[in-house]
Amino acid sequence: MEVLFNHHDLDQIWNWNASIPATMDHTVHGVIEQNAANYPHCSAICAWDGDWTYQELVSIATQIAPNLVSDGYSKNCAVLPICFEKSRWTPVAMLAVMKVGCASVILDTTLPLSRLEAIVRKVDPPVILSSLANLELAKGLTDQQVIVLCEDTLSSFEASSTPVLPIVDASADLYLMFTSGSTGTPKAAVVTHSNSSSAIYHQQAATGFSRSSRVCDLANKMIKVKQVERYGHRNNKGTMTTERLQHEAGKL
User: Fold this and answer.
1) Most CB within 10 Å of its CB: which of 2, 16, 139, 252?
2) Is 10 part of any domain?
């Protein structure tokens, strides 16, 4: 059998990785909040169901987050599933979860029910965040509480002028990304705030993300490039545009 990988190849790989990039010890939501402070009126989300500036994005997430803490959902970085269609509410849910020190896992609602059930069983969440459209689906995945985020329910979240939120370390888990599960039980890769912040910082020149970037949210929700889109453009003060799923292909 022909040898496809030899010692020379291994040496070459180590040479390519001789210079280790510096670690960025920042939380992702901390960077987003800094952007909101510096550029409050810049567009953050431009979606089919409405637009938000950075200031609005952070303000709404901050309104939601303390309610998660007060109800006891922030326990040793619990993993909270997010069950939304493509919508402006998805990044708000993700940001609120970050702010209470929990990790998120995006539930791709186009996947078979058995697959979603396996993911939820694996993470054993204390609560699921859901859109109104996916409420019945989310209820069928858990015996725990389902919190609906939408325009009609936002007023039910008590706003505080001085919200008490935990201090989140950059080493805390940010999100989970599950494998295809082709070998059996789905397995998850865990990405921390530091992992994500470091990757975005060092890849910024190559990706071209900037303040004027408008990133169209088209990729499948479960793949990692989706997370890079969501976190990367906001860390560089760009705008994420989101279309209704059923209309995307025809508009390209």
Assistant:
1) 139
2) no
Distances (CA, A) of 134 to 86, 110, 128, 144, 196: 11, 11, 11, 15, 28
By residue range, what is the domain housing residue 58?
A: 26-251
Asked if the structure places residue 16 within a domain, the reply is no
- Residue 148 forms part of a structural domain: yes
Overall domain count for the chain = 1
Q: By C-alpha distance, which of 41, 176, 179 is closest to 103?
A: 176
Do 234 and 240 contact (CB within 8 A), yes or no?
Answer: yes
CA gap 84, 134 in Å, rounded? 6
First-to-last alpha carbon distance for the chain, in angstroms, is 46
Provide the total of helices (H) and of strands (E) in the chain, helices listed first: 10, 10
CATH number, domain of 197, equals 3.40.50.12780
Task: Please list the pLDDT of the chain residue by residue as tens digits (252 residues).
Answer: 455 778 899 899 999 989 888 999 999 999 999 989 999 998 888 888 899 999 999 999 999 998 777 555 555 568 999 999 988 999 999 999 999 999 999 999 988 999 999 999 999 999 999 999 999 999 999 999 999 999 988 888 876 666 678 899 999 999 999 877 666 777 899 999 999 989 888 888 787 777 777 777 666 655 544 555 555 555 665 666 666 655 555 565
Phi, psi of 227 (to 5 degrees): -65, -40
Among 93, 98, 101, smallest CA distance to 128 is for 93
Q: What is the pTM of this model?
A: 0.84
Residue 157 falls inside a structural domain: yes
Question: CB count, 10 Å around CB of 178?
Answer: 20
